Amino acid sequence: MDKSKIFIISGPSGAGEDSIINALKAQFEIEKPITTTTREMRPGEVEGKNYYFLTKDEFEKGIKENKFFEYALEDRGNYYGCTFQEFERFKNSDKVKIWKVDYKGVINAKKLLLDGIVAILLDVPLDVIEKRIRKRDAVSEEFVKERLEYAKGWYDNKEYFDYVVKNEEGKLDEAVSQVVEIIKKYI
Question: Which CATH number characterizes residue 153's domain?
Fold first, then answer.
């Protein structure tokens, strides 16, 4: 079994990446890198399990010291990234490697590890993404507008993805099955 490939699951907010990844756990023993972020820790999150949390100054110092394999400044002014140290731990795992990054991370990863990456775009129509975002906790119109604008980046950069999987409303099982079949082609 070839476990050298890294499978990126990517899509805009509301595309269902977490739902797909959680469903993959029933099919495969998976490893995910732990992302470093500058956003506030949410209730129930654990340092070093869900994320590594840094201040913006600490993160920017890490950027200057070239500690990040990839990083992006997200739509709400928070950094997200994967350190070289964490990437090495992740890359050397014997499990199926699943990585959730935004489209900027996909572009960077493809440039650095072209042959080792299998990038899967979760394609969801913008109107469905909007409905899913609005279903979450109370969100402002400005937040919805920002998320939808940011979502366009995935569709403007489709050429960086190896596969496009539609995650239509009410058809999560079909999307999961497609992702499982893609992974099985490589392992």
Answer: 3.40.50.300
The dihedral formed by the CA atoms of 83, 161, 155 and 129, expressed in degrees to the nearest 10:
-70
User: Structure pTM?
Assistant: 0.88
Secondary structure of residue 47 in the 3-state scheme:
strand
> For each of the chain's 187 residues, which pLDDT tens digit applies?
566 899 999 999 889 999 999 999 999 999 999 999 999 998 899 999 989 999 999 999 999 999 998 888 876 789 999 999 999 999 999 999 999 988 988 998 888 876 889 999 999 988 888 888 888 766 788 888 888 888 999 999 999 999 999 998 889 999 999 999 999 999 8
| Residue range of the domain that includes 96 | 6-186
Find the angle CA(111)-CA(1)-CA(101) to the nearest 5 degrees.
35
- Whether 164 maps to a domain, the answer reads yes
| Inside any domain, residue 1 | no
Phi, psi of 13 (to 5 degrees): -50, 130
CA 163 to each of CA 64, 118, 121, 156, 160: distance values in angstroms, whole numbers, following the listed order: 34, 8, 6, 15, 9
The total of structural domains in the chain comes to: 1
